Amino acid sequence: MVSGVRQSDAVDRARRATLKLLLAGALAPLVGRASGRPRIGLALGSGGARGLAHVLAFEVLDELELRPHRIAGSSMGAIMGALYAAGMTAAGIHAQIDRLTVAPDETWFHSLLEEDLSRWLGFFQPTLGSGGLVRADAFLDFLEQTTGHASFEELPIPLQVVSTDLWSREQVVLQSGALWPAVNASMAMPGLFAPVTLDGRVLVDGGLTNPLPYDLLLDDCDITIAVDALGTRTADGAREPSYFDTSFNTFQIMQAAILGEKLKRRQPDILIRPEIRDVRVLEFHRFREIFEQARPAQEVLRKALRARLTPP
Questions:
Q1: Which residues are catalytic?
Q2: What is the mean pLDDT of the chain?
Q3: What's this model's pTM, rounded to 2 decimal places?
Q4: 3-state class of 310 per DSSP?
Q5: Strands in the chain per DSSP E
Q6: Do 221 and 213 meet the contact criterion of CB atoms below 8 Å apart?
Q7: Distance CA 300, CA 138 (A)
Q8: pLDDT > 90: what percent of the chain?
Q9: CA of 184: how far to CAs of 18, 49, 91, 134, in Å?
């Protein structure tokens, strides 16, 4: 009997939480307009390690005391977007990047810094024969523990995560239910991570269909900010491209082409493109260089937002 009562209480709490979220979602546009503050949509693109630059956009929003109305992310942008949507500040996310990169314990960033693949597998376990080289279970568990949120419905800021259906070749937008399996699907880069099966669909990296999903935000936001973290690569005449160089750069050529066609049809209000040069997809240990190269784009965003927020 006690067990039944507890279960009933849990169901009631879940229902109340759902009703609160629905009410908050329904009132959010009215509150935003009544306060005179614009509803800001934040789109975060793919780019592997270069996507760490998204934290610089968070810094500007925190500095100007702006909270996004909605966030949409693809691949690395889904990871960073989930952290910010969970209520973490830019400083908090930056601190986690610092800690993971330089800490002496067995973390994937530190393993990359040491260029020791065997240690990198502390977060990313090998999974040969399963459609990829590694799986990210431990890493995603770490993100869930860090944020304290397990579902989309728990997030303080609504989040949309983009993935791709492997068989229908269509974009899939995930925005309800379990959060981290959705992020896992969005970051499932073919050849590196195994596909993720959700609700009967086999899903892979969102960058295959929508590397910068600002289009999901345009109709519901007053100002849409899109951060393109693909960066640029130049030829290294000193050596032949490696297997991963060829695979990952080919993937990014395709993403750049998709984004170029999207921008011809409809553009975000503010497009930020950090000039991050010659940083490979998995070179997270170069985070300080990534931030340094992205600083000019951060200032562009700061000025653009101040111009739009200043009354004429």
A1: 75, 205
A2: 81
A3: 0.80
A4: coil
A5: 40-44, 70-74, 125-126, 134-135, 159-165, 171-174, 196-198, 201-205, 223-227, 270-272
A6: no
A7: 36
A8: 56
A9: 24, 16, 24, 12
Could you write out the DSSP letters of every residue in 243-263?
HHHHHHHHHHHHHHHHHHHHH
Name the token pair of 288: 């300080």
Instruction: Tell me the two tokens of residue 88.
Output: 């973490």
Place of tokens 């979220």: 21
Q: How many helices (H) and strands (E) does the chain have?
A: 10, 10
pLDDT digits (tens, 9 = 90+) for 55-73: 999 999 999 999 999 999 9
Place of tokens 């985070």: 287
pLDDT tens readout for residues 2-17: 344 434 444 454 444 4
Write the single-letter amino acid at 76: M
Burial class (CB in 10 A: 0-12, 13-18, 19+), 124: buried
DSSP string of 20-64, one letter each residue: HHHHHHHHHHHHHHHHT---EEEEE---GGGGGGHHHHHHHHHHT
Three-state secondary-structure class, residue 230: coil
At residue 158, what are phi and psi to the nearest 5 degrees? Answer: -60, 140
For the stretch 154-191, pLDDT in tens is 999 999 999 999 999 999 999 999 999 999 999 998 87
Buried b (16+ CB within 10 A) or exposed e, 139-178: bbebbbeebebeebbebebbbbbbbbbbeeeebbebbeee
Structure tokens at 152: 């989309």
40-44 and 70-74 strand pairing: parallel
For residue range 72-111, what is the model confidence (pLDDT) as tens digits? 999 999 999 999 999 999 999 998 887 665 444 444 444 4
Q: What is the mean pLDDT of residues 212-226?
A: 97
